[in-house]
Design a protein that fits this description.
The protein has helices spanning 16-27, 32-42, 47-65, 69-89, 93-107, 109-115, 123-137, 149-164. The chain is mainly α and 165 residues long.
Length: 165
């Protein structure tokens, strides 16, 4: 473990153990400047090594906190679909409706239905199609009438799939 002569070359890099201890300090809420001073004092690091170590630990923490929203959405939807199917199979209609409501919220289905009538060339056609669909689904009373049309359609599709199985 030879260190460069004072003032010459690049400083040694922090070890994984040192980086881990620095990350713990940062995650405990200790400010970066104080963590840097603690690393230099407690971990036997030079000031330059401590500064570089704090920067690297911050980078790693940020990287670990990065969320893949598409993957998380897919996971949430899969879980909700499973919960919905299980609830229907168990006769737990209220649980199935809650799962469907949450699925619709995640996918912003209610917003898409509202946006379909906001204008454009196909707005009249879309609105007419939605009215026809509502005319078929709402009389089935699969869900309260004030629920989003997409939820009525999902419930109907689930019943059809279950009957076909």
């Amino acid at each position: 473990k030879s260190s460069p002569a004072k003032g010459k070359g690049r400083p040694r890099k922090a070890t994984e153990d040192q980086l881990s201890k620095i990350a713990v300090m940062l995650l405990q809420g200790i400010p970066a400047a104080e963590t840097e001073a603690n690393a230099a004092r407690l971990l036997g690091m030079t000031q330059a090594m401590a500064a570089a170590g704090v920067g690297e630990a911050q980078r790693r923490i940020a990287q670990a906190a990065t969320v893949d929203h598409k993957q998380e959405l897919a996971t949430a939807l899969s879980r909700l679909d499973h919960l919905y199917r299980k609830a229907l199979n168990d006769g737990e209609v209220s649980v199935a409706l809650s799962a469907q409501r949450e699925r619709g919220r995640l996918l912003r289905l209610d917003r898409e239905v509202e946006d379909a009538g906001d204008g454009g060339e196909d707005a009249g056609e879309s609105s007419g199609e939605l009215e026809k669909i509502a005319g078929h689904l709402l009389p089935l009373e699969l869900a309260p009438e004030d629920y989003p049309l997409a939820e009525h359609a999902r419930i109907a599709a689930g019943i059809v799939r279950k009957a076909a199985a």
